[in-house]
Amino acid sequence: MARPTSATIHIDALRHNLGQVRLRAPGSRVMAVVKADGYGHGLERVARALAGADAFGVAALSDAERLRAAGISQPILLLSGFDEPADIARLRQLQVDTVVHHMSQLQMLEQADVGEPIRCWLKVDSGMHRLGFAPEFVREAHARLSALDGVVGEIVPMSHFASSDEFDEPQTAEQMRVFGEATAGLPGPRSLANSAAVLGWPDAHAQWVRPGGALYGMSVVAGTTGADFGLRPAMTLATRLIAVNHVRKGSRIGYAATWECPEDMPVGVAAIGYGDGYPRAAPAGTPVLVAGQPTQLIGRVSMDLMTIDLRGVPGANVGDPVTLWGPDLPVERIAAMAGTISYELTCSITRRVRFVES
Ligand SMILES: *Cc1c(COP(=O)(O)O)cnc(C)c1O
Fold first, then answer.
1. Does the active-site annotation cover 249?
2. Keywords in UniProt for this one (predicted)?
3. N or C, where is the chain less crowded by C-beta within 10 Å?
4. What is d(CA 226, CA 211) in angstroms, rounded to the nearest whole number?
5. Is the pLDDT of residue 185 over 80?
6. Mean pLDDT within 72-91
């Protein structure tokens, strides 16, 4: 029998979330960010579901190749830009746009064969200090890009926020100010907003928003879930109980015997573990649903299995469904228990998990 572990991707939720982004940023075009295999939801599946997006953003040229092979015809932007001259020819063949964030990329473009038309977004480091031209080099970079015969269309100045998930943190307003100053007077549309800025920083929406997480129904705003912003989770991770055992008071459960039964009790064993992408860091007490009833995991998460407190689910049987996250159990809660963010959890589902759509 096949392992009962599955990730169900809710196509309607993806579409609903795109609609919510459009409602919140009515004046902006939407680039759906589908990097990391669509935040673990499946690249081609997500792109088809979000066919209403104005463009797609990817982090790897191979993802752009997959999208074109799947017949996706919208603009695609390579968010970190190209690594070597051969990539430029490939981008051109695929009609994929690129971010230019570094002098080395600008030099490669200048040395590339003339007549290679390519569209460019110019990344400005407005204060995150990861990728982008320092503000004082933005005008020079823009002028050099504009001068290239091979660069067509409007250059889109863009930047990325470090702290937009904290709605009262001054860094975002400061980044907007730095970006505005560095790009003042340059032509073309602008793009700044990730999901959190779509939700909490309307002044940053500009002509293009670039949401990722929000489209999958996830929030990175501490203490909130996607539902708090009208979003619907796009993934349910589920499995089944493969054993129900009656364990005596004082017995210890699992590796390193970390959890001791406070009474005689039923313990469920579910067919999911860190080998499926469920976080090993999730401690005892992390919520799970058994047959829709809330309870908690106990002991350590192992590679293939986890153990579950069934005292609150007295009728539980082998074969009962176990939900790890989904619309009835926000992935943000699990992430908080595991000391990470929801994005990392959905990105970490491994290949042995069966993906289905609903
Ligand atoms: C990942 C990414 C986004 C999307 O971020 P979310 O928080 O998922 O909305 C937007 N822009 C860039 C450059 C990114 O790398």
1. no
2. Isomerase, Pyridoxal phosphate
3. N
4. 13
5. yes
6. 96
